[in-house]
């Protein structure tokens, strides 16, 4: 793994304010604005376009089974279409819940701080990730979940504790979680191709959803690397595999094996799809 492509490498030796300003300019162009409390025009336009996609899965998903799975109930792990959809809608649920909780930590951002401005934009981007993934329900002919996702008690405790954790702990945990997110989304991107070999249009539309999120996640990793020192990078590297394992119940049904987490060690910027690399902010 080259140092230049590693997600655990220190950021370049440039003034942090210059890096933040560059990232903020990238975000404004990508999102169409920087109002973390409002909406992002370019992301709304993407969602509007995706609602017009006509492609639908030829495999039927039982609505009751989907709702039961969303709520944490047992499902038929042999129903590959059901398991794929559940993976889509739940793979980002923990992170979205974490953003909601941790946003309390930044309730009063400093308007003059570039770091705080970026952080608010990234929190808003996470809400778009949830909407992008939930949009897949329409392609499988089931309604989006009506009730909010409820995290397991342990995850709820861990995320809640972040609200009050010192900065020295906070950003390494976020960095490890974001790297784990890149790994999970990239793994799912490859799995979609295996699961739907005979439905190329459906596969392409699902891949488009994942690529949009991966582009954001690369930037989120770059941002959190700006916030940590050498010890924080080490901590993030140790944490990432544990976060990845949290997705196992869904990913196992799609081909995840016990040693799949070892692939995390080989993950870096150069191993991501060309489109993701071309359109991402990475330093």
CATH architecture: Up-down Bundle
Q: What is the CATH class designation? A: Mainly Alpha
Q: Are there runs of 5+ residues with pLDDT below 50, and where?
A: none
Secondary-structure class: mainly alpha
Order of helices and strands: HHHHHHHHHHHHH
The mean pLDDT is: 86
Radius of gyration: 18 Å
Assign a percent range to the helix content: 55-70%
Instruction: Write down how many β-strands occur, each being a DSSP E stretch of 2 or more residues.
Output: 0
Question: What characteristics describe this protein?
Answer:
globular, mainly alpha, 283 residues, 61% helix, 13 helices, Heme Oxygenase, Chain A, 0% strand
Explain how this protein is built.
With 283 residues, the protein is mostly helical. The protein has a single domain, classed as Up-down Bundle (Heme Oxygenase, Chain A). The protein is 61% helix and 0% strand. The protein has helices at 16-31, 41-51, 63-70, 80-90, 93-102, 114-134, 136-139, 153-162, 167-195, 200-226, 230-245, 248-251, 274-279. Helix 9 packs antiparallel against helix 10 (200-226). The chain is globular. The two termini are 15 Å apart. The mean pLDDT is 86.
Write the layout of secondary structure elements.
Elements: H1 16-31, H2 41-51, H3 63-70, H4 80-90, H5 93-102, H6 114-134, H7 136-139, H8 153-162, H9 167-195, H10 200-226, H11 230-245, H12 248-251, H13 274-279
Helix pairs in contact: 1-6, 3-4, 5-6, 5-8, 6-10, 9-10, 9-11
What is this entry, summarized?
The protein has helices spanning 16-31, 41-51, 63-70, 80-90, 93-102, 114-134, 136-139, 153-162, 167-195, 200-226, 230-245, 248-251, 274-279.
